Amino acid sequence: MGIVITRTDPETVFNVLRLALYSLENGDQVQIFLSGKGVEIDQIEDARFDVKAEAQKVLEAGGEFLACGTCLKLRNSDGSELCPLSTLKDHYEVVRDSDRLITV
To answer: Is the pTM here over 0.85, yes or no?
Structure first.
């Protein structure tokens, strides 16, 4: 499954990460591409929706995060474990190779 995250709304991002984790627990492969505001995922703070903890669970379960390099550079960021610097080619391959694609 491919997931493209372009938002920083805590509830939306948290719920799509829950779906990613559930998919991994059921044997699916999951790649998450962060684009636009989505590259700010590691800065989302909300008492009700612990996005960072949920993202860490996805990583630990074997999910893969990729982050738009141009979007990171626009935000003066070199990336992080949760937002590894990636390319347009990576984004294309997530879309091309996924049997299912979700964009939020």
So the answer is: yes
